[in-house]
């Protein structure tokens, strides 16, 4: 067919050589004839040089009268000519042809070798770029300011600590910290440079499985999925009643407004409701922001007047890097970690009584009425404080049984749902652990009055989304119950008041741990090796250690986390907290210390809510990070010492007693070298066993292991009940 097109004319059809194409189809190629003719003619001429004809001569030996191949009859252009074995060109000729066309004719062989070597080296550089980046990072950045979320190179065992994209994200220019010498004007300019538009507090406060297991939005969308599956089995008679292909929203705006319309016909009305709700919340945000800033300013002025303490907030902004260096203490083994509580002379304390007790908000004569539902505190014991309301039996089994298996013999103090709301078998199980010897359970049943954001009364905390007040927790001097002195707030914030009440039941040298209930897994006794002896005299003030535990600093910083950045900005304002955007995140769900230090820390946490009135779920983590980075908790080598806190020690992720795993979602923990699947244990960066694995459920493999343990614990509990 191609030969006929090139020739520009059609031969008479022959019975043996006719082509199955019509003249009409061939004319469609007419525009391509000049290009095809030129290319094929050149190709045929090159091949003719090496083709042997029937008479034993090559095509190149034939006489050429200079005519165009278009008008000449060439032996190779005869349609359907019989193929002769002799017409196959010799291999040497083919190689020569390849060399002349593809192997850079005219280029010397040494230069060709150099070019090929360069191309190979370039390909190797591209393939190994990621590994070289990680090597350079750990070679030149062994320590970052503040918490060192990664490890030194020799401790990595060949496992990259974070992908290159995450390292670049951490140092983005939009989060660059202004120089100290430029002052407040530079901070304001840096705030104006931010290209991102700040979402409202309510828009960013979305349910997520990454923040305290909030799954409200997911639950609503699962209901939609079930409806769609049911409709597929029996199609809707009216298209307007269908739920297939309807619009959905990825924002949670309350229980009374679903993230999808009821049907296809209701989409327009649903969209209008969505827009109205967003406008309404935007106005509420603006008003709340003004009120919070005014309350914060008033509270700070009152504190300064009452205590005579100079406000160092501006100084802390410019010296945050220095604060981090002073506060950071090298990690050691558990046996070397914690000396006895320190006795500090009274004359060295200039921040005495900086924070009032939570009870003093209503007055100095306020008393605590809250008592355990069952169990008794043992003042000389160590204790673990847990807010554990609304969970089923499996959560309590995983927490308590894993702790029992470590040999821990201290107290576990729990806040649980009221008896009429407890899940089956929970109370019976907890009562079985109420003992004078070994692990001892102390449970509180707190009565809450909760409200939706609209102010309407709600049943329960709504997985932390509702705002609640404690009933019958405080009383007057006569012991009569008084209303909660604080406005409704998330239970995640109110829990620190409970922790403070519980802390008063223990000796000053007892060790206390504050940790989340749902995602904590114990592998070793967390208090083993900690010294607790102290004998304060009349002229000294007892002070202890406060231990904080960071998230992985190579993966997430305050500025790169929408949640953490928003909590701080909402509570304190962007100009105040922007210098902390490059700092590592410190987890508020895992804290340890001696009783005297923990009690002071808890007073500070409650005071921050009173000062800021930040009611977003998660603001407690904003308070937690602000207290540390602002220097309000004191410093190790400083004349200014906070009453009760001798020093604050911050542990890198994977190097302290509590290993926070939540930020490491880029790949499985086993690939990070932090999980031994054969031994079923979570590891530290140095390969040792972590005492406490926190946020383990973010990893599929570890979560599956714990679920298997839960099933085993449930079976053991059922067998125990059956035998008794």
UniProtKB/TrEMBL annotation:
Lineage top rank: taxon: Eukaryota
Biased composition (Polar residues): 176-187
Annotated spans, Disordered: 175-201, 313-362
Skewed-composition ranges (Basic and acidic residues): 313-337
Protein name, UniProt field: Uncharacterized protein
Annotated source species: Thalassiosira pseudonana
């Amino acid at each position: 067919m191609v030969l006929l097109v090139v020739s520009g004319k059609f031969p008479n059809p022959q019975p043996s050589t006719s082509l199955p194409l019509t003249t009409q189809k061939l004319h469609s190629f007419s525009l391509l004839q000049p290009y095809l003719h030129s290319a094929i003619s050149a190709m045929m001429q090159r091949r003719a040089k090496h083709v042997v004809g029937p008479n034993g001569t090559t095509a190149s030996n034939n006489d050429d009268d200079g005519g165009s191949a278009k008008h000449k009859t060439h032996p190779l252009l005869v349609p359907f000519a019989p193929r002769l074995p002799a017409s196959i060109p010799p291999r040497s000729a083919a190689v020569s042809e390849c060399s002349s066309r593809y192997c850079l004719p005219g280029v010397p062989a040494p230069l060709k070798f150099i070019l090929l070597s360069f191309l190979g080296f370039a390909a190797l550089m591209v393939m190994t770029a990621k590994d070289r980046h990680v090597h350079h990072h750990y070679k030149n950045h062994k320590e970052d300011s503040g918490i060192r979320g990664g490890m030194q190179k020799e401790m990595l065992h060949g496992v990259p600590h974070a992908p290159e994209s995450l390292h670049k994200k951490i140092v983005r220019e939009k989060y660059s910290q202004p120089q100290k010498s430029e002052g407040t004007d530079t901070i304001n300019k840096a705030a104006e440079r931010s290209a991102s538009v700040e979402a409202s507090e309510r828009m960013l406060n979305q349910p997520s499985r990454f923040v305290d297991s909030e799954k409200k939005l997911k639950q609503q969308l699962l209901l939609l999925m079930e409806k769609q599956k049911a409709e597929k089995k029996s199609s809707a008679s009216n298209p307007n009643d269908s739920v297939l292909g309807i619009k959905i929203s990825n924002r949670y705006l309350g229980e009374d407004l679903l993230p999808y319309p009821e049907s296809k016909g209701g989409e327009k009305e649903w969209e209008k409701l969505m827009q109205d709700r967003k406008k309404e919340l935007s106005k509420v945000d603006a008003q709340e922001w003004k009120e919070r800033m005014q309350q914060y300013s008033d509270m700070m002025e009152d504190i300064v007047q009452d205590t005579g303490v100079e406000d160092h907030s501006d100084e802390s902004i410019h010296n945050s890097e220095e604060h981090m260096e002073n506060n950071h203490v090298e990690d050691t083994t558990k046996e070397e970690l914690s000396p006895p509580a320190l006795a500090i002379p009274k004359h060295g304390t200039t921040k005495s009584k900086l924070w009032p007790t939570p009870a003093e908000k209503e007055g100095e004569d306020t008393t605590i009425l809250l008592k355990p539902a069952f169990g008794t505190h043992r003042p000389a014991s160590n204790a673990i404080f847990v807010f554990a309301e609304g969970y089923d039996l499996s959560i309590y089994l995983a927490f308590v049984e894993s702790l029992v298996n470590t040999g821990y013999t201290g107290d576990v103090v729990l806040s649980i749902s009221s008896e009429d709301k407890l899940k089956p078998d929970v109370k019976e199980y907890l009562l079985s652990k109420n003992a004078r010897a070994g692990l001892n359970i102390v449970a509180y049943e707190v009565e809450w009055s909760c409200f939706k954001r609209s102010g309407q009364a709600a049943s329960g905390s709504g997985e932390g989304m509702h705002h609640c007040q404690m009933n019958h927790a405080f009383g007057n001097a006569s012991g009569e119950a008084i209303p909660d002195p604080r406005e409704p707030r998330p239970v995640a914030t109110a829990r620190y008041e409970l922790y403070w009440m519980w802390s008063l039941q223990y000796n000053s040298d007892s060790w206390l741990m504050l940790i989340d209930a749902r995602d904590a897994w114990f592998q070793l006794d967390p208090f083993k090796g900690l010294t607790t002896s102290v004998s304060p005299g009349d002229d000294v003030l007892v002070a202890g250690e406060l231990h904080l535990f960071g998230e992985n600093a190579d993966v997430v910083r305050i500025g790169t986390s929408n949640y953490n950045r928003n909590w701080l900005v909402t509570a304190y304002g962007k100009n105040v907290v922007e210098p902390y955007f490059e700092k590592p995140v410190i987890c508020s769900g895992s804290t340890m210390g001696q009783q005297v230090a923990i009690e002071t820390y808890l007073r500070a946490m409650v005071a921050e809510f009173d000062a800021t009135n930040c009611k977003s779920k998660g603001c407690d983590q904003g308070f937690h990070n602000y207290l540390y980075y602002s220097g309000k908790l004191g410093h190790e080598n400083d004349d200014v010492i906070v009453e009760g806190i001798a020093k604050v020690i911050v542990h890198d992720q994977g190097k302290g007693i509590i290993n926070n795993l939540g930020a490491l979602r880029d790949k499985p923990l086993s690939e990070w070298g932090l999980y031994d699947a054969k031994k079923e244990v979570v590891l530290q960066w140095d390969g040792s066993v972590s005492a406490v694995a926190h946020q383990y459920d973010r990893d599929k493999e570890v979560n599956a292991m714990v679920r298997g343990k839960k099933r085993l614990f449930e079976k053991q509990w059922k067998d125990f009940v059956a035998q008794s």
